[in-house]
Amino acid sequence: MLSGKEKGRSLPSSPGAGRGRGSASLYDDEVFAAFRAITISHHWDGPCESAASFIRRTGFGPSLHRHDGGEIRGTPRNTLPLPQIIEEACQEAEIYKAAGVDGLIVENMHDRPYTVGVGAEITAAMAVICATVKQTCPRLPVGVQILSAANQDAIAVALAAGLDFIRAEGFVFSHVADEGILNACAGKLLRYRKQIGAEHIQVFADVKKKHSSHALTADVSVAETAKAAEFFLADGVILTGAATGLEADPKELEEVGCAVKIPVLVGSGVTLENLKNYLGANALIVGSYFKKESYWANNIDPDRVKRFMDYAAELRV
């Protein structure tokens, strides 16, 4: 995959260079390059937290899936009060920050079974959780994803909580997910982002997303899907395997990297053992690997995080 310089964009000397120009276009070279230098793919589950570390212009990020009970009130398996969920989310953020990650993302993955769109109680809770996590890690980029496909809610939460990006599913093309049919949302989402003054918040879009059937678009390749997301003004695209914890195809990463000029992130199945397969990505979402026994719903294993980040540090050189 082409590096930032090979794609005609120079990287800043530090992660914060070029930021803070709120009136700049999302595709201004300086703003875009600065983002590439701190790119994060993250993914919090339940709300969980994920982090990304920086390796050769490539972010490597762990995603956390907290233990059962951390579901938000109103969902079938909730048992914990919101203050305890917030406290545990911040504890997870501290673990990742200490490990040297480049960023974090909050996601309500434990709120099973998912619905297409969420109630106001979920959006409100996520805003409070995200704001507190951002206060805990003020120097790290922090993002949010709200399941399922509650992308406008995620933009609103990100703006209210002072976050930097969202992860969006169902951005282009329709597909059948386990919670129902998801239709393309790019037009409505980016108009909403404009209307509420949130254009500084980046949108990273899943393409051919996991846990879904893509028979409706079987004649559209993953590279063409990524090109459509780029054409519809996504700030980056995310590749995944078929399900949480399953590897993305390195060949697809190469194909998509050659097809688009925006950042390409890998969003599932990254481990210490296969990390080298994804050095062509701009960022990696690491979730299950950082949990005990590599199972997404378990607590974080700090030793796994440290081993991964130590190895990532070696690859940065």
From TrEMBL:
The family database entries (CDD domains) matched by this protein are listed as: TIM_phosphate_binding (cd04722)
Q: Name one Pfam family in it.
A: BtpA
**Matching InterPro entries:** BtpA, RibuloseP-bd_barrel
Q: Where is this region: Disordered?
A: 1-23
Coiled-coil stretches = none
Bias (Low complexity) ranges: 10-23
Regarding protein family, the annotation reads:
Belongs to the BtpA family.
Tell me the protein's name.
BtpA family membrane complex biogenesis protein
**Native species of this protein?**
Podarcis muralis
